[in-house]
Specification:
By secondary structure, this protein is an alpha+beta fold. It contains 6 helices and 9 strands, in the order ααααβββββαβαβββ. Strands 1-2-3-4-5-7-8-9 form an 8-stranded antiparallel beta barrel, surrounded by 4 helices. Helix 2 packs antiparallel against helix 3. The N terminus is likely disordered.
Length: 243
Amino acid sequence: MKWNWINSLSLLMLGFAFNLSAQATCKDSSDVQALKKEILSQAEAWQGQGDPDGSKQAALTTKVNRLLQLCPQSSVQERLPLIAGAWQQVWGPYTYRDKSRGTDPRLDPKRIYQVVFKDGYYYNVSPSLDSKGVAKNQTILLRGEYKVSKWSKEKNVLAIHFTHLRKVEGDPPQGMTYESLPALAEAHQIHQTNVLPAFFVRLFFGGGFLREVYTDEDLRITYGAKKSSFKDSYLYILKRVPL
């Protein structure tokens, strides 16, 4: 198959440009950098492990709260240009079928990505594994849309809803990466097939809320929940990856 994606991809990449003037309100300091390193190191050490009693999330949350004290954040509206881009999930829930906070053998915890476009949509990207953890040579693309929540009293909450669930067969095109696939998919420059009909995804997958508590040029920390009360939330630690 001949890949005719270079020109359209170049245009779409403009949507990923993030504005570093939207930095957090803190100044870089040795304490902030040391704490960020500590959070990432702990998240990486626990990557792929379950958290049935919530103790790992609680321990990370303690460190996150310390980071927020050192580095208070502006509103999520102001940080949207900084949130745009490609992120690799270091820590987060690995099963969505129940509330066990367990692992899902069909997900490779080292290869879960989220690519956020400034135009109000994003993709969750993950190479697909079978129930025994063996690679299926296909990539799942879950597309969602987001906007600043009008229902939350907080200024750091995004409302999200899912729109499509598709898959791409084979490896990414030569010279491309998994996090490059969403731009190709959005431009219809790569063959993709529906895993489920779009109306089914919209109706039954629904959506939820993201509380974006911290964002800078290389680290993003957010809590995901089905309800805006965030009573039963899941912590995500993500690091930026280049496109």
